């Protein structure tokens, strides 16, 4: 929680300007400063500084939840709409979890992701949005439209497609930049499913076989960030 971006918090326009000028980006950046330092660099009174520290300290506390709420959260899943597959996976892709879909090239992983995205748009009420990170630059909006039109339960209209958000990601740097703001984007746009298609493509583009440690470190960092996002917002990440 200490890594939460200050820009995503309701601190008031004037204080946000002071925070930006002081080059403070996360809750941890503020709480690591002394009381006197904060008063000086943010131009706050003692009372204002104390209020800020209390507010940001609360942001670091894990939310208190009842056992029944946690159980219901774990039982909530995004269905594949295939009875056998949903039964095998106990309902589909579980919210709050990071799910990896792997397979040889050409077996249909991207098509499967399209169908899963449409299921998210159809099965939530009101419909949750979908965030699709396209690293291979081959997203096919017309194919998604066809899947929606082929659904007997869904009417294909602009309101459905408007909830489908696509980012085309060409480099590791751009992927890291998107990850840094993804939590706020998901909150603002009521995202229920995040799809990365595919992480392996980015790794192949920018890492050689001689950089195995760096590859593994990057993958572990991405997985940790995506898992934290899924758990914090109770959404599905594929």
From TrEMBL:
Keywords of the record: DNA damage, DNA recombination, DNA-binding, Nucleus
Main location: nucleus
InterPro entries from the UniProt entry: HHH_XRCC3_RAD51B, P-loop_NTPase, Rad51_C, RAD51B, RecA_ATP-bd
One Pfam family in the UniProt entry: HHH_XRCC3_RpoA
Biological processes, Gene Ontology terms: double-strand break repair via homologous recombination
Family stated for the protein in its record: Belongs to the RecA family. RAD51 subfamily.
Stretches assigned to the RecA family profile domain: 74-238
Protein's cellular compartments: Nucleus
The keyword DNA-binding is annotated on this UniProt entry: yes
Signal peptide: none
Molecular-function GO term, any one: double-stranded DNA binding
GO cellular component, one term: replication fork
Protein name, as recorded: DNA repair protein RAD51-like protein 2
